[in-house]
């Protein structure tokens, strides 16, 4: 299974960009997916964790919850210019996620945006579990 020294990997996908995220459990998977998505926009080292937001997302299963979670982080950037660096999953069930995110508002003087993410797509989206290790992998493609 996956070496967790690298919790996510970026891959090219036609006009979009994809991400494989990994986690020993679902909360870690959701956290790594968020950090991986943010890393597509900006190097995480550029973000100072000075602002905290609590995020709650509800959906009908883990996959739609993951997509809703990432969409909510895109919404925070689009509406509050919030760049997220640290993620703490407070509660995760089959249909509900509650998390605390830390980051800061985008500052054109200090932050170098690599790309903007328009949306998380359903195309080829998947969460899989390795039965032997119990760890998880997600495949997500973003519209940029």
From TrEMBL:
Keyword tags: Calcium, Metal-binding, tRNA processing
Signal peptide bounds: none
Any one of the GO BP annotations: tRNA processing
Annotated Pfam families: Archease
InterPro entries linked: Archease, Archease_dom, Archease_dom_sf
TM region(s), chain numbering: none
All residue ranges annotated as the Archease domain in the record: 8-144
Example GO molecular function: metal ion binding
Annotated family: Belongs to the archease family.
Descriptive protein name: Archease domain-containing protein
Organism, as annotated: Ktedonobacter racemifer DSM 44963
């Amino acid at each position: 299974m996956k070496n967790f020294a690298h919790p996510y990997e970026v891959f090219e996908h036609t006009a979009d960009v994809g991400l494989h995220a990994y986690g020993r459990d679902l909360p870690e998977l959701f956290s790594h997916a968020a950090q991986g998505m943010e890393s597509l926009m900006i190097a995480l080292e550029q973000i100072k964790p000075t602002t905290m937001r609590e995020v709650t997302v509800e959906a009908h299963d883990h996959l739609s919850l993951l997509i809703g979670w990432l969409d909510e982080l895109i919404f925070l950037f689009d509406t509050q210019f919030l760049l997220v660096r640290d993620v703490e999953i407070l509660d995760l069930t089959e249909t509900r996620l509650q998390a605390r995110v830390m980051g800061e508002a985008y500052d054109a003087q200090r932050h170098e945006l690599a790309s903007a993410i328009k949306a998380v797509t359903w195309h080829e989206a998947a969460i899989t579990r390795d039965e032997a290790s119990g760890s998880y992998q997600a495949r997500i493609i973003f519209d940029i």
